[in-house]
Amino acid sequence: MIRRRFLAAMAFATALGLGTVAQADTVPTSAVTARVGVIPVMGTAPIFIADQEGWAKKSGLDLKFQIFESGPNMIQALASGTIDFYVGGVAPLAVARSRGVDVKVIAATATGENVFVATPKLAAYFKPGVKAAEAFKAFHAATGKPARLATQPLGSVPNTTLQYWLWEVAKVDKADATVVEMGIDATQQAVLAGAVEGATIREPTVTIVTKRNPGIKLEASGDELFPGQPGTVVAVNGAFLAKHRDAVQGLVGDLIRAAALATKEPQTVAPFIQVALGKGIVDNATIVTALRSPATKWLIDPNKIIGPAKLMQSYQVKLGALKKEVSFNGLFDTSLYDKANVAAK
Hints:
By secondary structure, the chain is of the alpha/beta class. The chain contains 17 helices and ten strands. It has helices at residues 2-15, 45-52, 55-59, 71-80, 91-98, 120-123, 132-143, 157-169, 184-193, 205-212, 222-225, 238-243, 245-264, 266-277, 284-291, 306-319, 335-344; strands at residues 32-38, 61-67, 85-89, 103-108, 115-118, 147-151, 177-181, 198-201, 217-220, 232-237. The strands form two sheets. A five-stranded mixed sheet has the order 2-1-3-10-4, sandwiched between helices. A five-stranded mixed sheet has the order 7-6-8-5-9, sandwiched between helices.
């Protein structure tokens, strides 16, 4: 329900033009309309900040947002030419490029977004000094059943990071935990209702559910789930990049500025994110808390996620989510970030 409200409000805001800076006279005559597909989670905040501050328009891009429920749906839109930019998880992009979709990752936005939370029944067993595997085993022994852990379908980043943490990092006995695949909406509702014992979720959901029920605890951070966990990225259609490279270069610089502002002044950017995620549904204080959350870690440098993204793909093959690894050659264009980073110093 929470996510559906986000999506409905975001769609309404976009329809009214609230998702972009409204003053038409601030748009340079050279500004190009750029259709941006996004999944409305906290990791996408830098591009909304760049838009609401007016920086993107000064760089030459008039951003128009479209909301998507999943990366695969957004890939279809990118392939069909419905959108020019993709702002979402990195996992589907290498596969898309291997299938002929001309796309370039030009920036990251956040890392370590997916975290593990335990609902009260399981959280009681995560005591100081108790390893995760022992907590799951103790829960199983006390209840006579394995802990049910909600996450998204096989192949998704939330699913991959959860399974990597369970079986490779925490070394949980597979008899003590069951992975339950469901949609994002269903995962959030299951956590709030106590229908599962744990889940992988992202901000602002982490803040929302822990505020509603303080018994829900964050038990493993994003980097604990998967070291260097790659999260949201900004990717662009290859033809659009070739035609408007200077404007896209400017946008990458804007993302660097946006991440710095969000880090130093979360209270300043919170109203922008409220507009993006559904004004009137998530209050400003919740957004500020989510911006300061350990589940919110800004990272614009795409160079730093290439290695972890390849390792994640390898593990997806081990899980059976992918038949084989696909090449990352040509997927990342780090030159725009490198140039923008030098200019920012």
